[in-house]
Amino acid sequence: DQQVKQNSPSLSVQEGRISILNCDYTNSMFDYFLWYKKYPAEGPTFLISISSIKDKNEDGRFTVFLNKSAKHLSLHIVPSQPGDSAVYFCAASHLTGNQFYFGTGTSLTVIP
Amino acid sequence: DAGVTQSPTHLIKTRGQQVTLRCSPKSGHDTVSWYQQALGQGPQFIFQYYEEEERQRGNFPDRFSGHQFPNYSSELNVNALLLGDSALYLCASSSETSAPKQFFGPGTRLTVL
To answer: Which residues of A31-67 are buried (b: 16+ CB within 10 A; e: fewer)?
Structure first.
């Protein structure tokens, strides 16, 4: 049972434009959400997180939005850069952080 | 400051064999989690170790076992390997005193023939 879903396997965006990556979850008990970026032959790298008491968190070019009623979160990257090309994973957990549930990832390609 | 390290990088085994993977957590971290990432999938939680005890376990059979040492490093053991165990095994470390953010190592690529 996939509790965290990323329904878009891939996304292509022109350099300088906005990239929007989406993630849905089914478990209303999740209260902490993270985005990780993964390059080939490397482990996932933490990008940004948000707790369920917020609906937005911003860090430089990256912003995560959380819509608890829709059980949906999104990652916005503005402006997109070629170095952002990677696979992005959405993850969810309880605040105890004992177990992360990951989506299947979205492969982002930023075209120069 | 060294991040999470894992060894070996790659490993090839045959069905029925046993394998041990190793992980050293990021400096200052006391909790280690293991994940299995099959091709085209997201990481799947295997288990988490804290204070040398398995604190939580995902939906993996008993063939998967682990250990945490007093210096917080950890091992993942898989017995009676199956072809379906071929995957990237990721170790992640975190701290009990900070937000539930996990930092991942580069992984060990296991191929079972």
So the answer is: bbbbbbbbeeeebbeebbbbebeeeeeeeeebbbbbe
Distance from CA of A63 to the nearest CA of B (A): 17
* Gyration radius of chain B over CA positions: 13
Task: Say how far apart CA A55 and CA B53 lie, in whole Å.
Answer: 35
A47-106 pLDDT tens trace: 999 999 999 999 999 999 999 999 999 999 999 999 999 999 999 998 776 789 999 999
pLDDT confidence of B33, banded at 50, 70, 90?
very high
Q: How far is B81 from chain A (nearest CA, A)?
A: 23
Res. B98: pLDDT tops 80: no
Nearest C-alpha of chain B: how many angstroms from A50?
10
Kindly identify which residue of chain A lies nearest to residue B31, measuring between CA atoms.
A98
Chosen for mutation from B37, B47, B50 (greatest number of chain A CBs closer than 10 Å) is B37
- Search chain B and give the residue with CA nearest A93: B100
CB B60 within 8 A of CB B87: no
For an interface test with B, give the residue of A48, A51, A98 to mutate (most B CBs within 10 A): A98
Q: How far apart are the first and last CA of chain A?
A: 38
Cβ count within 10 A of residue B50: 17
